[in-house]
Amino acid sequence: MTELPLIARARSHCSSIAFQSKARSHTYQDLLDRSGTLATALLDDLDDLQEARVALLVPAGFEYVAAQWGIWRAGGITMPICLSATEGEWEYTLTDSSSVIVVATAALAEKISPLCRRLHARLLVTDQAGIATAKFLPTITPERSAMILYTSGTTSKPKGVITTHANIQAQIESLVSAWEWSAADRIPLFLPMHHIHGIINVASCALWSGARIEAFERFDLAAILDRVSADAYTLFMAVPTIYVKLIQAVEAASPEERAVIVSGFARLRLMVSGSAALPASVHERWTALTGQKLLERYGMTEIGMAISNPYHGERRPGAVGKPLPGVEVRLQAESGAVVPGEDEPGEIQVRGPGVFRAYWNRPEISGGAFDDGWFRTGDIAVLEAGYYRIMGRLSVDIIKSGGYKLSALEIEAALLEHPQIHECAVIGVPDATWGEAVAAAAVLAEGATLDLATLRDWCREHLSYYKIPQRLIVLKELPRNAMGKVTKTVLRTLF
User: Fold this and answer.
1) What is 5-140's CATH topology?
2) The model's pTM
């Protein structure tokens, strides 16, 4: 029987540890056995799930991957859903995807079982799926659909992104090659497992390589710092917010504790940041503290990872690097023409074997998402000295002011370098003179004061680093808990 490459590769590491925790360790053979058991339970009296959608409500760890692999081995499409979502959010994704089965742990099954009954979806509780009579599992070909991940829905309701087994394999192989994964690697997993970052970049790449994963149900700062200090890992992948928390923890530690923690981080072979823009100030502060130069990359649910700073070579703060192996990238100007060279912004468009198939049950949106085979990401970037730099979302983060395309993300990054500014958000607002004017709202650090004139003087000195024209930004102080409402606060600027 021909197996999916991810499953076949696990057999070559069957005696190695796949998952470890304080409680116990699980080998790759355990993972194969458990996924086979769950696949048999999912099939029941069927021979093949025939791409039925199966929602996955399981915390990160051994049981999550066993269930994921079980769904795939039974011929289903796995659809991970957020553990902390509301019942209404669960109902939307289950209904939109026409899911027929939900796989959940006993604790989470209690929460979702009323919804399953109302939607007539079968509920399989992992804790109750014991050893079943072995049966032949279906042959799963690479072109079959493997996973549906729902996007964040910034422009409409969330859409289901369909990726095939071939797409997933291409995404994994690209990263394993670029970041030089091996069976000797060890990595913590604390990222949400309904996002591509945790599913592909961490778990799938590790298991493809025969590496070891230590899973946490959530980010546990103290536990992570202890494990890093004990040289438990070789790789580390997180979002910018976590790096900010780590910086705060390291700076707050005693000199003795700081030395141990910093030494642990310094010995890691690779640290990656993604899922959101990494401010250059955070990048540089982390390097100053630990000696580690964070590797920033760019990707999306629809394409996996497309662009990355190099494993060997310059990791440039504020840039996401060059196309990954097997990925083609181009920039398209507003006119529709392909940007021919450097220093001219355009929409990032991507093609390659890792690019998704379509949006679930959205044929018109799926068709409009591609331009002659190139996926239109909706993100604007510019190529500078061989590296791509992300400017922001076409519809949200690009401010067209006085003939310039200004990146709200870059202005935010610049403002965050100001010692008095704790948080900030930048938006564009209509302006009769400039077309759009830059509006900024900021939360000041505890006990700090900052007047507009002082901020304007500071901006004149610092914004040019980001190639932002010397324009003036209005600042308004808000309560520390008000950032959730910032985007609804329209602040006109006076240039």
Assistant:
1) Rossmann fold (3.40.50)
2) 0.83
